[in-house]
Amino acid sequence: GAALQRFLGPLLCLGALRLPAGSGAAARGLDVASYRERVRAMFYHAYEHYLESAFPYDELRPLTCDGQDTWGSFSLTLIDALDTLLILGNVSEFQRVVNVLQEGVDFDIDVNASVFETNIRVVGGLLSAHLLSRKAGVEVEAGWPCSGPLLRMAEEAARKLLPAFQTPTGMPYGTVNLLHGVNPGETPVTCTAGIGTFIVEFATLSHLTGDPVFEDVARKALKALWKNRSDIGLVGNHIDVITAKWVAQDAGIGAGVDSYFEYLVKGAILLQDKELMSMFLDYNKAIKNYTKFDDWYLWVQMYKGTVSMPVFQSLEAYWPGLQSLIGDVDNAMRTFLNYYTVWKQFGGLPEFYNIPQGYTVDKREGYPLRPELIESAMYLYRATRDPTLLELGRDAVESIEKISKVDCGFATIKDLRDHRLDNRMESFFLAETIKYLYLLFDPDNFIHNDGSDFDVVATAYGECVLYAGGYIFNTEAHPIDPAALHCCRKRKEEQWEVEDLMREFYSQKKTKKFTLKRAPDSGEGENAKDPEDASSEKAGEKRNSKKSSHSLLSCPSQSFNSKLAVLGQVFLDNT
Fold it and tell me: Is-above-0.70 flag for pTM?
């Protein structure tokens, strides 16, 4: 470590010297509104060419003006771009696309799909669009947000992924066939991010549908990774999901690991879950101790902590944004400024950058229009209002337009040194890169709501507040409204119903005895007093329950000495 510090020291100081002088003054003159409109124009240039030349394929091929299926066969770019349409204010196109997707997307297909990519792009995109539907003027059905066509599609897609989680460790396979489940010869080796990037979408799905299976498998996978961390507190890059043996033992914050850390933080915020946050904070300490050198993060051996690659990967640029979410803004800004120097050197972030040499790594010179540095700028700008962050946005707009814009959209940059292009426009360009750029330049967007404005929605389970802000972006930049997770609490609703029945029953002077039985899928102690449920019992007494779950309760006549077992609580007859 010390030797590497001496080796990197002078080079890192040189990097620091390249920081812009007086950048604040320049950015103060930056015309935010005009850049916002340029980002909007970029979106439509790409989106309209996708519709004209590539739909219903997954992605646009911008150099040949045609389309290709990449991650399945879902019209992926359309799903990924849907919530961006609303963020840009286009409600009519949002409504049209919702109808197109309902009619045209089918998950009963014989396709091998990435479990990770299908979750973040398809399940995440559909959930986000489902929750934003009312804001977009879609006529939602009576049970919304606890039901709706996009929610049913998201649930159907997620169910297709569940077979991947049926492993001895609970960690999922990386690939699943949407028709047949896991292929017999499937490799058991999955990357860490491919195991730990489900809690945001799957917990949202469980809370909205009332089916706990999604959140349960996501939590089990997260905990399996935690259990298999090294003695010095690090996780590697790839693990065997059958044996729990680490196959790639490089530890860092970038490719193969990145969104695992991101989802511990975002899952903790979304679910108000202290355990997930404490896991992240423990990892954060180990990451600082072993991988951080002068505000860069390197790759180290997960058991020994020795440096394995002194490389910065463009995917790591999400980290300053994540640091800002836990309030560590000073460290976040210092790392961000390091990454920004690389951007200015090349007009984009190469996939790999050798830190000591200050140059690209062979065969990793490309920039596929990734969002991560812009994402961090958006978060940090919300936290600091530092004009340097707007400058990165400006540089990104200028660079992408100059290098990557072609007649049919925007093309992946194959090599940042000579600006050769590749015939691909990834769906994340419209889902993430454009969205974060637009939100950086649009301080009044509804996504930035501070809680001063909101909708109150009546559901079968009481009223709930939506659109108040605090959105959690999944790792494909699909915003989830955390308040929506409290709209569909079926378990509580059953509890109020039971309490109403009990009061009614005892007020009739005990003429008959009943046993109220929970549906057989939950054991005696399963729900033993969730603190939130306990606090809601008193509130529940004041509510009029809408009795919609009779199927879960049966009331046969019983002998006098029977017990009432409800939601894991036992009531004796003499209570």
Answer: yes
